[in-house]
């Protein structure tokens, strides 16, 4: 079984994205995977400054924040799951900061081999709602050399003023997706 790190990149604990991630985790656990969930909404994760210090200093990022605690988790896992709400037709800023800071783990622009999965929620539910995010994710996985195990995209999830509306259909489907990860 795999060691799976689920990184929830939203600011709303128990919101739509967190609920989607939790259902996915339930499916993963049912099949015996070892799962660690990290909720970034209460973490201090700054954006990459592009200083390159990590490449000169044995993969140690110059920025001192909560990302330092996440690097070992990323190194230890087989699979990274990025769970993000859709904000202005892209991944959340928290997700982008987390991803950018993974540069510290590279050696000569080569990254540790990982499997990856993308989970997303959005209030919008057009045919093109997730196009930009999926394009970014596919380019990211190719650039990092990660093996894309798929994605689950839940549109039509309004989340205004604490009124979260992810439906049982999405939660059931993502649970089943989690059970299929081998």
UniProtKB/TrEMBL annotation:
Domain of life of the organism encoding this protein: Bacteria
What does the record give under GO molecular function?
A: oxidoreductase activity
Keywords linked to the UniProt accession? Flavoprotein, FMN
Where does the record place the NADPH-dependent FMN reductase-like domain?
A: 3-146
Please give the InterPro entries that the UniProt record associates with this protein.
Flavoprotein-like_sf, FMN_Rdtase-like_dom, ISF_SsuE-like
The record's listing under PANTHER family reads: IRON-SULFUR FLAVOPROTEIN, NAD(P)H-DEPENDENT FMN-CONTAINING OXIDOREDUCTASE YWQN-RELATED
Q: What name goes with this protein?
A: Multimeric flavodoxin WrbA
Q: Upper taxonomic classification of the species?
A: Bacteria, Bacillati, Bacillota, Erysipelotrichia, Erysipelotrichales
């Amino acid at each position: 079984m795999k060691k799976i790190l689920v990184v929830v990149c939203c600011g709303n604990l128990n919101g739509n994205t967190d609920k989607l991630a939790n259902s996915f985790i339930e499916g993963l656990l049912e099949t015996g995977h070892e799962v660690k969930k990290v909720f970034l909404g209460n973490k201090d994760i700054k954006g990459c400054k592009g200083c390159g210090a990590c490449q000169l200093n044995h993969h140690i990022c110059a920025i001192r924040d909560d990302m330092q605690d996440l690097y070992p988790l990323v190194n230890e896992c087989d699979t990274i799951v990025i769970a993000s709400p859709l904000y202005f037709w892209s991944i959340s800023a928290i997700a982008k900061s987390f991803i950018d800071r993974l540069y510290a783990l590279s050696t000569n622009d080569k990254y540790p081999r990982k499997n990856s999965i993308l989970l997303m929620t959005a209030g919008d539910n057009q045919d093109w709602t997730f196009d930009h995010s999926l394009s970014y994710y596919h380019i990211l996985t190719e650039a990092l050399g990660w093996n894309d195990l798929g994605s689950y995209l839940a549109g039509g999830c309004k989340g205004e003023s604490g009124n979260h509306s992810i439906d049982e259909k999405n939660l059931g489907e993502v649970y089943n997706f989690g059970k299929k990860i081998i």
